[in-house]
Amino acid sequence: MNRRQLTQVGADAMRAPTVADADPRLLAGCGRIELGRIMAEHDAPAGSWCQRCRWPVGGVHRVCPSRALARSIRDRRPVPGWLLQLVDEVPGARAPAVPVSPQQRWAVEDALPGLFDAPPRQDPPPARPAQGGWSR
Ligand SMILES: [Zn+2]
């Protein structure tokens, strides 16, 4: 790899991954065995390039986009933040859940059917004052 190609690889490390950077098997949807195969094929030591997709590994991110997508789909985890733009394109990939307030979570939990009606919720006690704020 000559200096010009190395410069191009460095520029690639700065851009956000697109659908073209993902393994075509991921875009078509695949099972756990195929996901493991993708992870093995896209494994590369840090500070080098993925031998399969030529993505620089070890600079900004430790794995190439295909390996990160395959791992998060296999482990049923949300995709890392740098791959959020691919969530809608890759089947099985999902974004992290949006945090909700405790009141919203309680409303959902209280609406679930149960043997008894849920007792009314009480507001949480006020936060304790900062250290040294207690008076005798
Ligand atoms: Zn790769």
Question: What do you see in this structure?
Answer:
The protein is mainly alpha-helical and 136 residues long. The protein has a domain at 3-86. 35% of the residues lie in helices and 3% in strands. It is built from five helices and two strands, in the order αααββαα. The chain has helices spanning 3-14, 24-28, 32-41, 65-74, 102-111, and strands spanning 48-49, 56-57. It has a two-stranded antiparallel sheet. Strand 1 (48-49) and strand 2 (56-57) form a beta hairpin. Helix 3 runs antiparallel to helix 4. Zinc ion is lined by residues 42, 50, 52-53, 55, 64, 66-67. Residues 42, 50, 52-53, 55, 64, 66-67 line the site of zinc ion (ZN).
